[in-house]
Amino acid sequence: MNIKLGAIAIGFTLISVAMSQTAVDNVVLKRKLAAGDLAKYKMMGKIGSEDMGQEFEVSGTIQFKCDKVAEDTGAGMAVLWTKLSVLRDGEEIINDPEDIPPVVSAKIDKAGKVADMLCEKDDPATEFTQLLYAFSHIPLPADELKVGTKWQSKSADVLLSPLGGATASYEVAAFETVGSANAVKITFKFKAVASDSGAAAGEIRGEAWLDSKTGLLLKENVTLDALAISGAMMKGKYSLELQK
């Protein structure tokens, strides 16, 4: 084969492969869970409190493991930090394994929504863990998704404040690739108010990329414009990225 023609042929092949990876303009997205499924994420973020005048730098590895799946009740998830480091104004306050929050048990109902979360410990780190998992679990509609599709979902009332009973809005922003996977990019906004005073208790926005075949979270960026954790209003940003 002529060298020049061979190069052109290779070029067309590469272009067609790239197009086949990204040429997705609609999908019915379903989250497929099976007992034993395990996803590990690298987490990094900076979160501060104007009330306390402090800034926290958080990094670590968190895993979501499916413990069981039942057709009539849904799925049970175990949320656990395997590594966690927290710096407060540059000083390390969490790094010892004994200081890592205990397992958070999450129940996913048949509709794929977080129905409840339980934990033996009640402190800011554990509360943040619950909120982090809730924001990472995007409730999916049954309809076909395309760019511009919008939907809303109300959180279960039993979840901790400010999450319980709040409504989040979602929108498909794009179809992209993350590594070698086709992904659906979804943007979301969440706003909650305190039931007693009506004051803002949570204002969160973010973007998440879900695998278009499995619904698995591939990565996520979250901005906390305002989030009440253990009585303090927190602001900041954090990210999650799936680890192989």
Question: How far apart are the first and last residues' alpha carbons, in Å?
Answer: 40 Å
Briefly note the structural class of the backbone: mainly beta
**Radius of gyration, whole Å:** 20 Å
Shape: globular
Number of strands: 14
- Low-confidence blocks of residues: 3-23
Largest sheet: 12 strands, antiparallel
**Residues in β-strands, percent:** over 45%
Average of pLDDT: 84
User: What's the helix-strand series?
Assistant: HEEEEEEEHEEEEEEE
Name the helicity range: 10-25%
Work out the helix count: 2
Describe this protein's structure.
This protein is mainly beta and 244 residues long. It is 14% helix and 53% strand. It is built from two helices and 14 strands. It has helices at 3-22, 124-136; strands at 26-27, 38-49, 54-70, 74-88, 91-94, 104-108, 114-118, 145-146, 150-154, 167-178, 181-193, 200-211, 217-229, 232-243. The strands form two sheets. Strands 2, 3, 4, 5, 6, 7, 9, 10, 11, 12, 13 and 14 form a twelve-stranded antiparallel sheet that branches.
Write the layout of secondary structure elements.
Elements: H1 3-22, E1 26-27, E2 38-49, E3 54-70, E4 74-88, E5 91-94, E6 104-108, E7 114-118, H2 124-136, E8 145-146, E9 150-154, E10 167-178, E11 181-193, E12 200-211, E13 217-229, E14 232-243
Antiparallel strand pairs: 1-8, 2-3, 2-14, 3-4, 4-5, 4-6, 6-7, 9-10, 10-11, 11-12, 12-13, 13-14
